[in-house]
Structure formats: C-alpha cells, structure tokens
C-alpha cells in the first residue's frame, strides 16, 4: 500500500504532541529515575502523581507519573491550536464512530478524550497552564539535559490503517518502512510540529506504546547519561544504543524505566516544514534503517511495549520478521 | 510600544524563509569561502552565478551568489505553503500600496516580487525544484557542516513599525529588546517555522541585511570552523563569537565573507510552535541579552551591514546606544 | 597470580610505542581506508609502501602499510629515550636468550630487532626523522581526526608471563582482568608514556596483534567516523562500539581495515604518571569491564587478530570464556 | 636569548605539578565556587581549610583553600618520583644558595620547602595520601567536570632567567614567545609530565601566580560552565575565552574566583614525551599565539595576578607591550 498524499488542509489543527501519563508502581523509584537521573523538572507532586517538564518547555508538563498497580499508559495527549479545534476534533472523531467525551484535567483547559480506530486513547486540549521559562537557568540542567518531549512511537496491529487515519487527521509522513514482500507498511513516521515525527507506528501487537522520546542537546549528553546510568544502578535499564538511526537520521538511546516503560533520547533529526517534503522509503530488509552503523536492534525492542490502560491488544496481521540482533 | 498580539490567522501562509541572493565581486573567492571553507554544496554554477544548498535541504538552494560590481543583497526570499498563498500575498501587499510584480526565477515556480514598507525587497514562491536528499551522504560534510538556512536579520530604521507590519503578515514575536528610556523596540525576533526566528530586526540605518544564518549540528562544529578559518587565511573574517546568545539561547559565531556579507552559524535555540508562546523581553542595557556570558558585541557588529540593491537607506529615529565592546 | 610490583628503575628507558607495520594486499584499498576515510597523513609512498602519521605527531610515521600477499603485522616498534638505551635493550634481550640484530630502517636511526619470549617481533630505535608540525593546519583534519598512535593490544597465550616480562622491561600495569576461578590474568594494560597503556595483552591464541589504537579528540569524532564509514561502503568494517570501556574509562570504537587488521579509536582515558598509581583489578565475569554500559563484546572481537609475519601461534593454556554478545 | 637545550638527565626527577594553596577570605564563598560551581570534590574540610581533588585524581588534593585575610598563594607544590629525589632537590637548591627547610604537611610525606631564584615558594614531596578512584562514579561529575590539575602559570620579572633555572631542574620547553625587538623571552611553557606544560612563565611584575589550570574532558564542558556561571551569579567572574590558544593548541577559558585568583579550564593540548621534541617559537606580535582565532587577551589578563604570601614583587626589565584587546 502506498503512503497516502499528505492532507495539507486537515480538519483539525494539531500543534504537537503534548504529554503521556504513565502508570507506575512506585512513585519514589520513578522519581529517582525521571528526576534525579534523567533530569526532568517536577512541576507538581502529591502522593498519587508527579508531573514533569523538560527544560525548554513552558507548558505545565510533558509527562505524568501516576501511582497504580499495573504499569500502563493512560493516554496520549496532543495540543490543539485553538479552542475551535476542540470542536473540530469532536466532530471528526464522532463522524468516524469513535467515542468522545469531555473531561476535566488539572492544569489544562477543557479536554476531549477519544480514541483512534485501534483503540489508542487520545486526549486533545488547547490551553495548558504556562510556567515561567527555565531554559536559561543552567543550574537546573542535569542528567541527559532533556529539552522537550519529541514524539510517541506505538505498536499498531495494522500500520497501513493507522497511517491512513492519522494522515486524514493532518499528520504528514516523513519516512516509512515497507515490507517489500507484501507491499505493506511495517512502520511510519508522521509529524505535525516540523520535525521528523510527533508520532510513529511500528508493526506489532497493538495498540501499545513503544516509547516516548525526549529531545536532548547533543550526542554527548546521551553519552553522559550512559555513563551516569551505568554507574548508579541502572546499567540493566539500558536497552539499545547509542547509535544513529537510518530512519530520521537522529542520534538515539533507548532505556527502560523502573516499570519497563521505554524512553528514547533523541537529537539531530531534520526540519520538515515544507509541505512538499517527499517521504523517504526504507526496506524492512535494510538493517541500516534501524541503525545507520549497521547494528540490528535487539528482539525485546521489537516485542516489548507498554499497554494502554483497559485497551485490548490485537495481533498484527503482517507477520514479517525484522532483522534482529543475534 | 508594546509587542502586538500574535496574528494567529494571518492572510498569507508563509512556511519559512527560503534564500537570499548576494551580489559578490569575485565568484571564485566566494566559492572558496562558501563551498571549500563553510561546506555548502553547489547545486548550479555558471560564469555569473552559483547556487548553494545546505546538507539537509532538498530545495534547490538557500543562497545565490551572483557576480556584480558592488556587494549587495538582491532580495530575501520566502516559501509559501501553496500557490493560493501567492495571490493572497499579492492582495496583502497591494492593499498596503506596496509594489508587486510577477517574475520568473530559475529553479522555482511563479514568483512574486514586492517589498515591505521600509523598502526591503521580498520575494515569495510556493514551489522550488526539489533535489535528492544528501543528509546521509556523510562523505559530503565538511567545514561547519551547515544543515539548513535558519534566519535573516536586518537593520530597520524603525523596528516598531517593522514588527507591526510583519506581525500582520503572520510572523510571531518570540523575543525582543526594548529601549527602556523611550519604550521603543530596539530589536525583535519573529518566526514562522517553529524556531526562535525566520527574521529579526535590529535598530539602525536601514533597511540593510545584518546577516543570514545557517543552522549547524553542535557548538563543536562552530569550534571546528574557527580552527579552520584561523589557519586557512580567514582569521580576519572572524567577527564575533563564539558565544551563547541571551536572546534565543543559541550558540553562535559571526563571520564576514570576502565581500563583507555577514554570516552567522547558529544552533540550539528552542521550539516555538505553541501559539500561546509568551514573547520574552530584554533590556537594551543588559549585555547578557547579546552574549549570555557577558561579552558585549563589537561596534562594527552594530553598524555594518549589506545594503539591498537599489534601496535607499534611512537613519533610525531611535538613537539609543547599545553596549559595545570597549 | 598477582600483578608484580612496578619496576620503577628499569633497564631500558622506553619512551613510548612508536609504530606498527601492516602487510596489506592492496595498497590502493588501504590508502582509501587509512588516508581518505580515517584521515591519517601520508609522509611517504611508493609502489610497495605507504607511511602515515597522525595530526599531532612530528615523528615520520606511526603506521607503515607494506604490500604483500598475506595480511600480517611485521613488527611493533618502540621509541627509546637515548642511543644508550639501544645498547641497554640489546643487553637486556640477550641476557634472556632472545634473538637480537641491528637493522637499517628508512627514516630512523640504528634499529634493534628482537622479540619477546612469546615470539612477538619488537623493534627499538632512538631517533626518527622529524617532520614540521601540522597540528594547527586544520585544513588537513578529516575523517576521525586521528591525533597520535596510542597503544598496541595483543593476544598472548600466557598473559601472566607476558606481564612479568614487560614489567621487568619497565612497563607499569594500570589495570588488569583476573580470571577469579584460576587466579590467572586474563588481560592487562601497561604503560610507559603516562596514559593507561602503550601495550595491552588479552588471553588467546598468540602472539597475534589484537589492534592498534589511535587517539582522537572527542567522542564526537568517533560518531562522525561511524556516520562516514556507514555511508561510504565501510558499514561492515564496523566491528564493536561506540562505547565507554570500563577498563581504562576510554571512549572507543573498533573497526577492521580492508585486510581485517583491527583499529581502535580511543579517547579520554586518564593520566598515569604517578609512580605509586595503584593498578585497578576487574573480574572476568564483569561485562562492565569491557563496556561500562553493559554490552558484551562480539565473539569475533575475542577470537580474530593479525598474525605476526613468520611467528608461530600457540593456544592459550587458560581456557576461560569471557562473556560475549549472544 | 635562545631557549637552552633540554636537560635530559636532570638532577631531580619531578613527576608533575601537584597542587597550590590559595589564601581566601571567605571559605563558604570559595566552596560555592570551587565545589558547587566548578565541580571539584572535597576531600577534607574544617573551619580553616578545604582540600579538593579533581575527578580522576587519586592523590589527596590538587587545591587547598586556606582562610586568611589577604588573597594570596602560599606555595606551589610538585610531586617527586621517589624519596631519594627529595634529597637531590635539597642538594640542588642549596647548591644555588636558595633557602630550604623540611616541613610537615598534612596528607603528605616529608616535604621540602624552598624557592626559586625569583622567590617563588616551591614545595616538593614524594608521597601523598592516596584515595579510592572516583573517575567512574559519574554521579559525582558536575560543573566543568574537572579531571586533573594541569599546570601553573606565573608572572616572572625575567623569563629568560626563569627558563634557564627550571630547564636545569629538568623542565623541558615546548613552546615560547620571543620579543623580536630585544631577542628576549616574553613567555615560555615547560613540562615534566608529558603535556605542553606543568609550568609556564609570562613576563610581568613577579613572581606572582598568573593562574592554575584544570584539565576538562572536552570544549563542551567549558561551554557548559560558561552557561552555568553566566546564570548563577558569576557572569563577572568570566575573564577571557572561550577560545583556542595558538600556543599549546589547547581550548581554554579563564575565570576569576571570589578572591580574584585566576583559574583556567583547559583541554586538547598534545603529547610531548619525545625527548627530541622541538620547541615551537611564536612572535610577541602575533595575536594568534594568544588566541588562534585572532582575539587579543584583555589588559587585565596581562596585568593582574595572585601574589605569593610574603614574597616581594619586582618590576620586569622587559617592557614590551603585548597586543591587548582594545
């Protein structure tokens, strides 16, 4: 199936991905990981929840840690351009027969909760509490010096369908992997905010969250984090990398948090604002698409992910096998 | 005068700055500078003109060098979202009594030539020839490894008026410097593409081009360029830096080309896609706005610039004096 | 077996490792690799031989490529402090019943050819032709920007014996790996010049050269080389890394040349000039000794190496198995 | 006056510079600077004194802060190879009619206190308390990530005489600046440990300490420190840089501590262990010797320094004027 032509006049103006809420079993352990080790900044905390922002963000949070019994992701949240886009979103999802409801969320304006056709829980809002800038308070920078949330990547049982749906909603494909045997999509990267992606899909049991990624200043900050994690008790949380992705050209590292949620640190992809930007195609057989330097990803990276709370998981119908590390 | 509220529904959808044409006296000397030293890639050349692109760009060029007798900038070019925006631009500029004409430019679709109220020559187009990606041909990277054009900065004789005009056109202010004595704007940074700026204005004899900037991967590439220029005959072309700007938080270096055109290398500013992003205000008396580390800019940096071909230059009516290096 | 106490008043004053000669089958292919890709500088070449130096070296060469039929290393060369040390070296090797002969080598003064008790061919000289400095000719820097030769690592069939011998000769142990089951040494790092090592030994079929290493400015230069090799036809020459060694704390990458000779790029180990520097011990069972971040080395890294020309290879009597990548 | 030939068989085996003691007026303010901002590690503190080490050092300290009324440096300390060298040092200094005394210092073995012919207080010892390694405790790294002390630089009223004296003592000159009008030395860099220098002299009112320098991993750590100091109340403590020195080829930054003591951060000079290394000569008229990129040093950098406690200061007889920033 071909990548659909970009929908340049979409029904809803989505500015960017906003945040994800992770259910974690031990807030203290999660705080040690996300705050003390990675360097995210706490913007609110009580006995049930911690909200975090990265260093250049002025919105209240890019990550919510909520205490719970089973590791999961509650929902993926997106910021809309305007209040009017909330109603446009409502209309769009209703017209596809998808469930919508209006909810209250702390720190943000009226919020629409809905889901995509695969069941992925999505949340849309237009205004979140704004905080004073801290990007020039260099005394606060530590860990990997996370600057901003960059993207979500999720497993989808049918990537072709996911791409078609999100394309209609206005996400534009920048790169994709095709299974050349079947002509089906194995993976796709789609953006709103002008980088390689706000969201990406990988073929697999889904919907599940594969990872959330944070933008960091340079590859050296990722090396610093590796040194830090390797010598502060987190060596086994390092999953894959560091390396350069073929897809996106970004420098990357994947780690797992204390509940197994996967987090990527990411920098140096490219600008994608041109509406006539041509999507780049990669073959599923090319290991350089994963890591430009040739190393295949480990099997766990292709198989493990975070379930969405209360959402049924389907087997993918595309059974191709990616190249994995031996 | 206050910064006007962002015009979130502008009359024309400008995607980003596109390119500038420099008139240079010696194409060979300019080629040695821009290609052999900085590392831009030639996409066309003949006896009169060289066109260049940076490494991650797929548009045909971000810089045109045209042989001529007097150093000048011919025009500043911007990419529009759609052909329809060309006519919207025509209507916008005509409604303000500004001159418009349709022109043919090589490598790009129908082009509108006009100017802002100060006389700055502006060009708008929607489609430019697309070239195959080279961002992963690492054998081509050299010099400062320029990735893409980032912004234009120009001297304006009245920054308040410039900001008001470009704000109407849809540019959003991210940061600005105010002369606190008069309440007038000294400088402003305005964007379309989601970084700190596509265009910036500095108070001074204008309109003149202050500099064109290219995005580079990391501060180390700027250090590499300094080492290279310092030992290949270009030491006196280094004008200011390296340093961190207070304004924009970017790491920077300013150099002068063989004709005196100023070029900035720039990285690590921040994402500005939120429509509710609050502009940051700086005082003209604060030297950290220029260089976060405290060093004032040299006087030449505040005074010298590139004239636009055939455009009259006016004295600024704001006579404040910035802090300059002793 | 314990690490012997450092011999602080050795019989011979060895300044540092100097160079290795590799037999290669295709000088043109080797030149494309070492010169065009890695960035070493040619100091002499004819139809049979190319000599190379790194950017901060003023000695004539740190690597000799000699055309031949079978990939091999001819000899490892060391620079002595003084001509008198040549005779001291002669006496030392003769007293141990090892073969010595005086030979002529181009570009260097009178040269002693000998071998260690395992048969490793060693060469000593005091003066080599000196070349004008090029470390500030930044126009010459490319590839990985190699600055100087750093160390040799070789497989030895008995590391305990190798350490005892080289310790007597004045090399000081900085770090070592012990097989805790047998109490035998698995590997050791020994220096003369004030870094972690000039030479290192790894248990294995030997003597064979495991790798020669070059010092590079920062980890980013290693990342640049990975990007370059991955996109210029050398992706399969990338063998291991990038990573941080536990042992030595250095940042590293291992690649293979067109004949399979292994080359390491290395930076950021530590200063070891204190005569009372305590050797650091690592367990063979600890994968962090190899890569601080936890990734085991691939099996080929433990097994493959370059034979010394005409030297018989012995099986190691220590049969411990290191942790290898699955 | 020419640089004397290196004294390759010196009377005393000095391993390296060891530490300096600074008299500071406010230990708390100094601690905030050296520990919280620069990132040195406290190894001892009481109400009168703080001792510090850098991250890769295993000796007890490289810097002593002692409470006192007037900012000063008490003495410069050097580590000897062996106890025997202590007596050799005693003999050497006595033979030149210089004062010697045996003193007790905490954390180090028997110590010789003496001075050079200019009156600079020097201290020699062979053993200092050794501490467990912390170079792989990456949780401790912060600020500029100082790895080790690198060198002392001092003003001397007669650099020719200083070079002659320290050359006899075994320091080897790597680079020097000559006043071409008089043929006199303006400055010289001399080493023991295999880098560009352990000590350097600059013409000026002396003896005074110009600065103490610490080795840091990469230029990016220096940029991080600039960002940190600029936004934590230390912007006016930034004196010169960042830049690349012509002399030494190192990347540098100079800052002033709360008492005005000058500290340099320094990386990427080159290896100098070859006994036949040729000293490099620079002209006093060449601003690139100071900063390869062309920027002259500020006047204060040439004039201000730390007096040695109780040591008379003499005017230099060489009155040449270096190029200074306008």
Topology, pairings included?
Four copies of one chain form a homotetramer.
Chain A: E1 14-24, H1 27-37, E2 41-45, E3 49-53, E4 63-67, E5 72-80, H2 83-95, E6 101-103, E7 111-115, E8 121-125, E9 148-156, H3 159-168, E10 172-179, E11 184-191, E12 199-203, E13 208-215, H4 219-230, E14 238-244, E15 251-256, E16 262-267, E17 280-283, H5 299-303, E18 306-307
Parallel strand pairs in A: 1-4, 5-8, 9-12, 10-17, 13-16
Antiparallel strand pairs in A: 1-5, 2-3, 3-4, 6-7, 7-8, 9-13, 10-11, 11-12, 13-18, 14-15, 15-16
Order of helical and strand elements of chain A: EHEEEEHEEEEHEEEEHEEEEHE
Beta content of chain A comes to: 25-35%
CATH architecture classification name of the largest domain in chain A: Roll
Evaluate the radius of gyration of chain A.
Answer: 19 Å
Q: State the CATH topology of the largest domain in chain A.
A: 2,3-Dihydroxybiphenyl 1,2-Dioxygenase, domain 1
Q: Assembly state here?
A: homotetramer
Superfamily (CATH H level) name of the largest domain in chain A: 2,3-Dihydroxybiphenyl 1,2-Dioxygenase, domain 1
**Average pLDDT metric of chain A:** 96
The termini of chain A sit apart by 30 Å
Stretches of chain A where pLDDT is under 50 for at least 5 consecutive residues are none
Indicate the overall shape of chain A: globular
Q: What class would the helix/strand composition of chain A place it in?
A: alpha+beta
């Amino acid at each position: 199936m071909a990548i659909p032509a970009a929908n340049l006049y979409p029904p809803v103006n989505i500015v960017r991905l906003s945040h994800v809420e992770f259910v974690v079993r031990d807030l203290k352990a999660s705080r040690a990981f996300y705050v003390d080790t990675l360097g995210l900044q706490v913007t609110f905390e009580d006995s049930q929840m911690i909200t975090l922002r990265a260093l250049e963000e002025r919105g209240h949070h890019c990550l919510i840690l909520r205490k719970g019994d089973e590791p999961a992701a509650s929902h993926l949240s997106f910021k809309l351009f305007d209040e009017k886009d909330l109603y446009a979103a409502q209309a769009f999802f209703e017209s596809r027969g998808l469930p919508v409801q209006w909810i209250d969320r702390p720190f943000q304006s009226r919020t629409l909760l809905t889901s995509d056709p695969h069941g992925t829980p999505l949340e849309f809002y237009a205004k979140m509490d704004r905080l004073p800038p801290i990007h020039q308070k260099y005394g606060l920078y530590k860990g990997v010096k996370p600057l901003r949330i960059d993207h979500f990547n999720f497993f989808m049982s049918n990537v072709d369908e996911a791409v078609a749906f999100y394309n209609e909603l206005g996400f534009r494909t920048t790169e994709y992997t095709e299974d050349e045997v079947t002509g089906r999509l194995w993976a796709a990267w789609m953006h709103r905010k002008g980088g390689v992606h706000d969201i990406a899909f990988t073929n697999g049991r889904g919907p599940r969250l594969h990872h959330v990624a944070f933008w960091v200043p340079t590859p050296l900050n990722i090396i610093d984090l590796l040194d830090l994690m390797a010598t502060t008790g987190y060596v086994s949380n390092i999953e894959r990398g560091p390396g350069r992705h073929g897809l996106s050209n970004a420098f990357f590292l994947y780690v797992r948090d204390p509940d197994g949620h996967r987090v990527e640190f990411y920098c140096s992809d490219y600008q994608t604002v041109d509406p006539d930007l041509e999507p780049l195609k990669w073959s599923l057989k090319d290991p350089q698409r994963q890591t430009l330097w040739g190393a295949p990803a480990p099997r766990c990276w292709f198989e493990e992910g975070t379930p969405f709370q209360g959402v049924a998981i389907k087997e993918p119908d595309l059974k191709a096998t990616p190249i994995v590390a031996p």
